[in-house]
């Protein structure tokens, strides 16, 4: 291939979920609705927690961070998809694609880390209730969240620096509705061996360690509950974990489903459709999981809405 075809590309083409023009208005309406519901739901969670002093605890501190990350997570991909849909365009700039890759990895990783930190919080609350306030002090909570940010920002930057070394052909098409690192590496015109090895190692470590932490925390929680003599005490203790378990199951279930489907099928379009589950559906459902299953959050939301509604 001529060197001219390997010049510094200024843009890529995102093929999206479907090329059928009749489906574009439907896709725009569905994804715009899901985006607005996600942003509104997570904003309400953040406002309810920040405005209610009863929720100024480690568990809800981590939940407000999770809601913020979910807003950023879905905002990384969906707005550009909606703009392209309306403009009937497929292009995304090279810098825009790099930015999507970077921030997508950052916020996906933070989702994973925060769910792990929240599992540790539940472990301390149930297994060491008398020392909970001392252990989960505000300083430790801030250090845990800050450490998560520093790790994932550094790892994501490392992948971007490796990606900048790659060359791409002019008119490169990405069979996805956003720039996902694995998909971008597949369409590179230069050798991506180092990038792929780094991606596999990072994915294994960033998934294995958090998941191991979550499983260990819940194994200790179950063990502690088994030693309780009161059935009511067991139910009350474990009920505080219900929302978190649902969120963990949704996150890992959809992520695992995407990667299993991409391994089984060679259809890039089917893979991009299944990825909607963890890129859009998971951030949208998290506010419902934590509000519908949690009396404290429902009460705080009710008080927030009552204050926002003017008296007639």
Automatic annotation (TrEMBL):
Keyword Membrane among UniProt keywords: yes
Lineage: Eukaryota, Metazoa, Chordata, Craniata, Vertebrata
Membrane topology: Multi-pass membrane protein
G-protein coupled receptors family 1 profile domain sequence ranges: 41-290
Residues in the signal sequence: none
Subcellular location(s) per record: Membrane
Function: Putative odorant or sperm cell receptor.
Key words, A-Z: G-protein coupled receptor, Membrane, Olfaction, Receptor, Sensory transduction, Transducer, Transmembrane, Transmembrane helix
SUPFAM superfamilies: Family A G protein-coupled receptor-like
Transmembrane stretches, start-end: 26-48, 60-81, 101-120, 140-162, 197-216
GO molecular function: G protein-coupled receptor activity; olfactory receptor activity
Entry protein name: G-protein coupled receptors family 1 profile domain-containing protein
One Pfam entry name: 7tm_4
GO cellular component, one term: membrane
Gene for this chain: LOC106823684
């Amino acid at each position: 291939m001529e060197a001219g075809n390997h010049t510094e590309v200024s843009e890529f083409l995102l093929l999206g979920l479907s090329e059928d023009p009749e489906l574009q208005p439907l896709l725009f309406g569905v994804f715009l609705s899901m985006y607005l519901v996600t942003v509104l739901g997570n904003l309400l969670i953040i406002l309810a927690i920040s405005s209610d002093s009863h929720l100024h605890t480690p568990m809800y501190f981590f939940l407000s961070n999770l809601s913020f990350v979910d807003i950023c997570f879905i905002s990384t991909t969906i707005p550009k998809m909606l703009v392209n849909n309306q403009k009937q365009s497929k292009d995304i700039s090279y810098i825009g694609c790099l930015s999507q890759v970077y921030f997508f990895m950052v916020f996906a990783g933070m989702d994973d880390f925060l769910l792990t930190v929240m599992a540790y919080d539940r472990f301390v609350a149930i297994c060491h209730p008398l020392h909970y306030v001392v252990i989960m002090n505000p300083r430790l909570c801030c250090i845990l969240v800050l450490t998560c940010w520093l790790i994932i920002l550094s790892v994501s930057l490392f992948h971007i620096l490796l990606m900048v070394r790659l060359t791409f052909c002019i008119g490169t098409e990405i069979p996805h509705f956003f720039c996902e690192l694995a998909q971008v590496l597949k369409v590179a015109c230069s050798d991506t061996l180092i990038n792929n090895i780094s991606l596999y190692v990072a994915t294994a470590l960033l998934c294995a360690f958090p998941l191991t932490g979550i499983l260990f925390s819940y194994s200790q929680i179950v063990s502690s509950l088994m030693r309780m003599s009161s059935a009511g005490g067991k139910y009350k203790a474990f009920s505080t974990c219900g929302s978190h378990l649902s969120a963990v199951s949704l996150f890992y279930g959809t992520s695992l489903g995407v990667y299993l489907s991409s391994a089984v099928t060679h259809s890039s379009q089917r893979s991009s459709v299944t990825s909607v589950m963890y890129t859009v559906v998971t951030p949208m459902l998290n506010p419902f999981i934590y509000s519908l299953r949690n009396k404290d959050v429902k009460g705080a939301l009710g008080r927030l809405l009552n204050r926002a509604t003017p008296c007639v």
